[in-house]
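Example 3.
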Amino acid sequence: MDFNLSEEQQMIQHAARTFAREEILPVAAQFDESGEFPVDTIAKMGELGLMGIEVPEAYGGAGLDTIGYVLAMIEISAACAAHGTIMSVNNSLFCNGILKYGTEEQKKEFVQPVASGQLIGAYALTEPQSGSDASRMKSRARLSEDGSEYIINARKSWITSGPVARYLVLFAVTDPEAGARGITAFLIDTEQDGFHRGKTEPKLGIRASATCEVELVDYRCSVENRLGEEGQGFKIAMSVLDAGRIGIAAQAVGIAQAAYEASLAYARDRKAFGREIGGFQMIQSKLADMKTRLEAARLLTLRAAWAKMQATDSGSRFTLDGSMAKLFASEAAMWIAHQAVQLHGGMGYSKEMPVERYFRDAKITEIYEGTSEIQRLVISRLETGLR
Ligand code: CAA
């Protein structure tokens, strides 16, 4: 077993760390406060290849591997989890799915501008009444009489990057009698007639990542812009989420790392009862547990990335690895951020220090791309073979 990173992996880690520290960290608190979408830093991330890390260079990406993607996500999210969210949806939920299931024309038209960061992509699965139970969606698509296009009527909620995205991968029911096998995926252009955006959600954390509802009213999608086969949509949605969950695990590791490093520095610096608080056993115990959970989360996440790379080669699934990484890393991030606030005392509750932001940002990693409860369901179903 070799834990060393390749030269390419070290390069992307270094590039992402340098950019995150020099360009994102100085503005992270300001964007968290304003809730504005960070247009300039995201554009620069596109120029650096961070918006399509695993996308081949021929389609505008950096052509690197999943481990490289995870390493970069950790660095960006340690500086600002909102940037991590935007990066993750662009990379995993948008580009990956089209690369895996799309036609050559779709890759050129939809992946190329999004992977290069000129445009933003989004993923529309969730609906107001169906979140965890994703296959119960109400959005409908029906083929026109001449068979050349689908007419889509849909309402989707919690769409990350929805307010700014040019393109969406959207899921709708084409055969209401067929359950999960009656769902189809479509590539949607938000500049076309019939597409509408709802209000932007005010959120607890990752506030600079824009989230909104979207509605499609008699939107006409050409048959050429259907992603995969009719009825294959739910499997596409799930397999895309398998990869997405590794990205969210990496985001959680980044937040946890930032919370741990802030705590370590504070424990060395802050004095109480005549000495550095890091010298007290209660603080030492916290730091030891934070560091151990952080590194365990990192290993599980890197192992999931490795499993995805093996699966890409062999065509097998890596669902279990992705779910375990997301479950463990997101709960570790929440726990570590909680300890970080406590360790900082009153300063942990103040907006003058970044730990209260880490605490708010960590929470979403236990919710989106499948809650912790859904990850436990996926893991136990795969382990027991029972449903
Ligand atoms: N890969 C490929 N196929 C899969 C799969 C996977 N990972 N998981 C399931 N399938 C297939 C099954 O094999 C089955 O196929 P057959 O019909 O051929 O047997 C079919 O899909 C249906 O599977 P299930 O019966 O297991 O489906 P279910 O209705 O019981 O749902 C679930 C399973 C795990 C609960 C799923 O609905 C789920 O993951 N829910 C959570 C949804 C979620 O993560 N939402 C996040 C929204 S996106 C988001 O947050 C993005 C953002 O903005 C950041």
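The first strand starts at residue 121 and ends at 124. Strands lie at 121-124, 140-143, 149-160, 167-173, 183-189, 195-200, 211-222, 226-227, 271-272, 275-276.
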